[in-house]
Amino acid sequence: MTPTLWLRPNRERSLKLRHPWIFSGGVAKVEGDPMPGATVCVKSSSGDALGWAAYSPASQIRARMWTFEPDEPVDAASITARVTAAAARRATLLAGGTDSARLVFSEADDVPGLIADRYGDTVVCQLTTAGAELWRDTLVDALAALPGVRTVFERSDADVREREGLGARVGLARGEPPSPELVAHEHRWRFGVDVAGGHKTGFYLDQRNARRAVEHLAPGRRVLNVFAYTGAFSVIAARCGAANLLSIDSSGPALAVAHRNAALNDVDIGELQEADAFTALRGLRDRAREYDLIILDPPKLANSEAQLDRASRAYKDLNLLAVKLLAPRGVLLTFSCSGAMTMDLFQKVVAGAALDARRTVRIVDRLHQPSDHPVPLAFPEAEYLKGLVLEAS
Ligand code: SAH
């Protein structure tokens, strides 16, 4: 018997809008005893077939749609085709001055639970759902079969796996071990990528647009890069003629890669400070320091809507401290990568910070995640990274 997930009455609306998530509260019953990750037929309470989904018994997101077409097969061939098509959508980007891009962005590329980032000949993948876990061999084979791929390394160690009842798995999945010297080439920049020990898949591909912006904002400015990670913004600012530079991050290993990135790009990136950003910013404020360009790119501070209030206070504290450190006509590049925080809310939080700092601050630009992190119109949850380019009076 085909395992079947029956929705409660009137719970098919979001699926009709092609939104891929089925929450536990919308499920009436599940027949056929599917195992975690198994493909289930999704039916409305009146028995209409709505498509096929990956079943996640441990998660609040109880199932994720593979397809809204009841006649479309969900098998190794169709899943491989999704991965291949997602990679093909990045061809233009990868022909245009970078060898590094996100190839597969989970639901946004019709492969729920698979993140795959390419750095040259190396693909780093992360499986985050029971469905992706069940199809692991198919997924890593599909990635390994992409033209020019020598290594597929798995970084399935994201916290979100716990919500799916999955443990961590890190290691070589296909091909040759990753090079310890692996470098992402982006325009004229070189960034070292620590695939085994770095954050996420090793590098923040999603800040590509912001890196371009920093090229134009940095010349002649005194620059403060907070949450610097491996110093990508610092390298660019230094090479583009920043007057001086201070980079702050709490991760020693990340700052070690920042040193390596300075050498790779043949530039002096100035002082690297291993410190808590909140404490360091207060210290700079107490010493009445001033900067002409401040970059504020904190980690995800809200993992869910429930954490939004607390996260908003943290974003406000950070931005308040930053605005106070801005020289006259100084520029603040401030980010939130919390999906739960909308651009609207983020702007309000930052406005509150500027008000408390008694500064007049204008939005001169907005930044977003780049084209290899697309946002399907039917799945706005894919949008997570937003940035404001602010200019103080
Ligand atoms: N701007 C970076 C990415 C930043 S990711 C880039 O473009 O590559 C967020 C960074 O914040 C991580 O490097 C993490 O080590 C650092 N971090 C997290 N909490 C911190 C804290 N309390 N103080 C300072 N750094 C912190």
What does this structure look like?
The protein starts with a strand and ends with a strand. The longest helix has 18 residues, at 308-325. It is an alpha/beta fold and 393 residues long. The protein folds into three domains: 4-67, PUA domain (Archaeosine Trna-guanine Transglycosylase, Chain: A, domain 4), CATH 2.30.130; 76-180, Transcription Regulator spoIIAA, CATH 3.30.750.80; 204-392, Vaccinia Virus protein VP39 (Rossmann fold). The protein is globular. The protein is built from twelve helices and 20 strands. Helix 7 runs parallel beside helix 8 and helix 11 crosses helix 12. The structure holds S-adenosyl-L-homocysteine. S-adenosyl-L-homocysteine binds next to helix 8.
Short description:
With 393 residues, this protein is an alpha/beta fold. The chain has helices at 13-16, 76-89, 91-94, 130-134, 136-144, 160-163, 208-217, 232-239, 252-264, 277-286, 308-325, 343-356; strands at residues 4-7, 21-23, 27-31, 39-43, 49-55, 61-67, 100-105, 114-119, 122-127, 151-156, 169-175, 183-186, 189-192, 222-226, 244-249, 271-274, 291-296, 326-336, 361-368, 386-392.
